[in-house]
Amino acid sequence: MSQPPHGDAASAPASSSPSDPSEASGDAAATARLLPGGPVAERILAEVAERVAALIRRGVTPALATVLVGDDDASAGYIRIKQRQAAELGFASPHAHLPADATQADLHAVIESFNADPAVHGLLVQYPVPAHLDYDRALMAVDPDKDVDGMHPLNMGRLALGLPGPLPCTPAGIEELLAHHGIPVSGREVVILGRGATLGRPLAILLGQKRPTANAAVTVVHTGVPDWPRYTRRADILVAAAGVPGIIRPEHVKPGAVVIGGGVRYAGRRLLPDVDESCARVAGAITPRVGGVGPTTVAMLFRNAVAAAERATAAANGSGDPTVSG
């Protein structure tokens, strides 16, 4: 499945080193530095392009299949973005477009067709699907080995157990973004506002795992907790993943904290982020309203896709470990 970052319902500070903005003083109005996702995505996609080229030299063209149901303009736009990126990287991109009145059986038939095609290595179904369709059932129908979103229950279980496998794209992109910008995570207090299956929950697992770019003390809080700001105000790193536009305001942020805007809603094509722009007056570092987490999410999608192609190739050749993650 594929969808933009969303939530439950998406220069360094003068008083700190560039890598540790959460140690900044309370007056961060002029010092909050932006944490763009573009440079992170460029680095990841350059690595992906090299891996794609290596596969092509072996006679394998990696293929990322997409499925769109209905005629939602925004969803069609997201598919076009992924297809353009796929072409730039050297992926084949077979596509199935079903009418808005397609049945669950119609959708599953297309999914099964891509599952059975050995030339297809990755598969995503664009979210949302029309209301009469069951998105979760469609997710369950995707071959876990071709699940480039990392959202199949089997792959979520592998994440929870610390086993190799495709990682959920937005959480993995956030970890990459923090590491790229030199934000220390290990031993820090990370608070995630939002407990959704695509962002809040998997990010909590990911950042709590033992490795240099994670190993944090993670708290997950949500809007069902009446005094949720009590938790967000103590965060060294605050991740907004509630999907409630403008829910995070300056009074909810510890001065000098790192603020990551992962939760969004859309009104047509208009982006409505969780983090109010005025939080830049308080934060030590913050993702921009546009071009923050989004580019890293797309980059991680293609990293998962090339890893799926590598696993399939290794399995077909009887060499290597087909479970190794990218």
TrEMBL record:
Record-linked InterPro entries: Aminoacid_DH-like_N_sf, NAD(P)-bd_dom_sf, THF_DH/CycHdrlase, THF_DH/CycHdrlase_cat_dom, THF_DH/CycHdrlase_NAD-bd_dom
GO BP, one annotated term: L-histidine biosynthetic process
The enzyme's E.C. designation: 1.5.1.5, 3.5.4.9
GO MF, any single term: methenyltetrahydrofolate cyclohydrolase activity
Family as reported in the entry's similarity comment: Belongs to the tetrahydrofolate dehydrogenase/cyclohydrolase family.
Taxonomy of the source species: Bacteria, Bacillati, Actinomycetota, Actinomycetes, Streptosporangiales
Highest rank taxon of the organism: Bacteria
Keyword Phosphoprotein listed: no
Subunit-structure text: Homodimer.
All copies of domain Tetrahydrofolate dehydrogenase/cyclohydrolase NAD(P)-binding, residue ranges: 168-312
Residues that coordinate or bind NADP(+): G194, R195, G196, V264
Protein name per its UniProtKB record: Bifunctional protein FolD
Pathway entry: One-carbon metabolism; tetrahydrofolate interconversion
UniProt region (Disordered), positions on chain: 1-28
